[in-house]
Recover the amino acids of this structure.
């Protein structure tokens, strides 16, 4: 949640109700992160904060311009004093904790995000990291700073825009520009929300309409001051109605929206309009309730609270062997309580003394230098690959192998979530020649089988094809949130199968979704209508909570030894769909191959295929390494050879 400042000019009246609205906004975000079931759409608190920011900061700029005392140097100096002190403290604490607790790849990711946070480009860094193999959001301690990046990028050009508008001598110029930018940004947001959801979420061009909404509200008054806005603008609704409707819209969005929904898109307009209505309803009953001391104080510490709460929750989740929802609620609430205490201490002992002391150039230089040093520290962390030196020597190899596990894949044949099927090509994804063709179709699980089968091609006459899409199982007519190209991509793969006529089609996936028997039957029927290929369904691999490399590290910390060759330590059996897949395959009279039967037994699943950590079987929570891919392929290939031999090849 970006920081905003209450008016600091003596000519602007302080509005406690806006601090109260900030308190509500940060409370929604914290609830969403700590106990999401109570506010599944609590992330809209960030959108409320964007509106508040645009309203207050624009009002301050315009007020200074009217009084002919606006200065770019003073504006940015205020921003530095407002933002940097608390941010620097939290970044240092987060990095120190990461040094102690994070595995190398996660620590390298933290280094990238530290660079982004210090340079206020976190949103771009996080956008660049989006992908199927990226760390889960709850494993990124600095994930929440994307919003700070969006706001500060907006304030790079917005003061200049208002300054140029003022030089035209026409008061309407700024308003026209603001409305034009607002509508263009909102239209772009709608245009890309379905096709590029991550870009829509992170990029400033699709989010600044929210900040501009507050800016337009501030500009709509004759005096151009935030405090005058509610009295001098004509509204369709009365003050009381605006307060009730606006607050209701915010709360409704927090209760009705869910993380699986496309956002921002059109839905972001709900909390934005709600915030506009509440801000405009000064002196209404709702605003008087927002002016109560407790919620106002929460608003005053909202910036450091936002900074602290997420790293604490992220590290709490990282310390647990289970998923987010299985972290005991009392521990999550304890983390929230600690974040409130840290926020209060940061506000009183760090933020206020620096923010409200007489401005000195040396303070600004010191803060800027410290931020630059943190960015440099992040860069070194990335260059050092997360400082493997921190790990015990016998564990380092596990992470080295895991980091290089996808080197044997055909990268252009494993499409990311925002790539369309046009990125596939026969040249890259299909072996040339005339031998029998084994066609791998699925998600990244299918891609992990390729290195093992490719290794077994030596001295054999069969060919391989691999067409895979991240988090998209080989099921026709399937729509998956966050994977807008899945349906069309699968249709394209089916058309490729019909064209190249393989002897064997292997359907392989993590099978986390789309494994319903009817869905599988639809896909198998479509293949049979087009080619006479034999079909093999390959079940999911073993799943490891937080990843097998992390299990190696945690087991070593507990025992000073490697994981046993077979182990149930951090093994997750909760998502298995073996029975459903077996039953569907039997009903459809197609072959079924279980990776878990190959890799697991009663006392656990295989953690390495040889004596040393270089033979680790999974690079993360499920993806096979080259060693385990070869191990599984050696069991699978004889079955596939029998299939195309039975087909007369």
């Amino acid at each position: 949640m970006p920081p905003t400042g209450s008016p600091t000019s003596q000519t602007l009246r302080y509005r406690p109700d806006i601090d109260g609205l900030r308190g509500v906004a940060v409370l929604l975000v914290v609830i969403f992160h700590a106990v999401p079931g109570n506010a599944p759409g609590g992330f809209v608190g960030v959108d409320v904060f964007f509106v508040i920011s645009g309203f207050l900061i624009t009002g301050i700029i315009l007020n200074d311009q009217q009084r002919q005392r606006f200065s770019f140097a003073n504006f940015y100096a205020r921003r530095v004093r407002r933002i940097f002190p608390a941010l620097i403290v939290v970044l240092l604490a987060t990095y120190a904790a990461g040094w102690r607790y994070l595995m190398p790849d996660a620590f390298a990711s933290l280094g990238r995000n530290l660079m982004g946070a210090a340079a206020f480009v976190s949103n771009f860094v996080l956008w660049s990291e989006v992908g199927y193999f990226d760390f889960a959001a709850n494993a990124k301690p600095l994930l929440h700073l994307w919003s700070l990046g969006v706001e500060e990028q907006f304030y790079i050009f917005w003061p200049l825009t208002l300054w140029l508008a003022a030089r035209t001598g026409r008061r309407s110029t700024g308003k026209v520009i603001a409305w034009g930018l607002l509508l263009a940004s909102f239209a772009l947001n709608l245009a890309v929300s379905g096709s590029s959801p991550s870009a829509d979420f992170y990029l400033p061009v699709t989010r600044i309409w929210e900040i501009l909404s507050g800016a337009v509200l501030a500009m709509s008054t004759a005096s151009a001051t935030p405090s005058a806005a509610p009295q001098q603008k004509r509204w369709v609704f009365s003050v009381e109605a605006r307060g009730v409707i606006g607050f209701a819209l915010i709360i409704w969005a927090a209760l009705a929206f869910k993380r699986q929904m496309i956002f921002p898109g059109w839905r972001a307009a709900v909390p934005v309009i709600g915030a506009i209505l509440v801000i405009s309803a000064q002196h209404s009953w709702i605003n008087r309730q927002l002016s109560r001391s407790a919620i106002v104080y929460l608003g005053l510490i909202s910036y450091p609270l936002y900074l602290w709460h997420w790293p604490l929750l992220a590290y709490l989740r990282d310390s647990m062997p289970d998923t987010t929802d299985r972290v005991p609620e009392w521990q999550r609430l304890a983390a929230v309580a600690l974040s409130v205490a840290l926020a209060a201490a940061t506000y009183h002992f760090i933020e206020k003394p620096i923010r409200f002391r007489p401005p000195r150039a040396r303070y600004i230089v010191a803060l800027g230098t410290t931020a630059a040093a943190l960015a440099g520290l992040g860069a070194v962390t990335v260059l050092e690959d997360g400082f493997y030196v921190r790990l015990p020597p016998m564990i380092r190899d596990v992470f080295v192998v895991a980091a290089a596990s996808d080197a044997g894949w055909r990268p252009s044949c494993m499409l990311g979530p925002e790539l369309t099927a046009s990125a596939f090509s026969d040249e890259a994804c299909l072996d040339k020649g005339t031998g029998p063709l084994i066609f791998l179709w699925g998600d990244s699980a299918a891609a992990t089988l390729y290195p093992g089968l490719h290794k077994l091609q030596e001295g054999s006459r069969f060919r391989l094809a691999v067409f895979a899409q991240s988090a998209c199982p080989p099921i026709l007519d399937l729509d998956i949130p966050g994977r807008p190209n899945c349906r069309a991509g699968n249709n394209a793969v089916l058309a490729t199968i019909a064209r190249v006529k393989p002897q064997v089609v292997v359907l392989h996936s993590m099978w986390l979704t789309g494994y319903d028997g009817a869905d599988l039957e639809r896909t198998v029927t479509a293949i049979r209508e087009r080619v006479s290929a034999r079909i093999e369904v390959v079940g999911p691999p073993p799943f490891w909570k937080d990843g097998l490399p992390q299990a190696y590290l945690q087991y070593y910390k507990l025992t000073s030894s490697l994981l046993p060759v077979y182990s149930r330590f951090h093994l997750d059996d909760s998502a298995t769909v073996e029975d459903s897949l077996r039953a569907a395959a039997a009903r459809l009279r197609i072959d079924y191959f279980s990776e878990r039967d190959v890799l697991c037994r009663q006392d656990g699943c295989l953690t390495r295929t040889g004596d040393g950590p270089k033979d680790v079987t999974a690079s993360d929570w499920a993806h096979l390494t080259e060693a385990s891919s070869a191990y599984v392929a050696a069991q699978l290939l004889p079955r596939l050879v029998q299939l195309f031999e039975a087909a007369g090849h």
In short: The chain has two domains: 16-390, 399-542+576-599+626-646. The two ends are 62 Å apart (CA to CA).
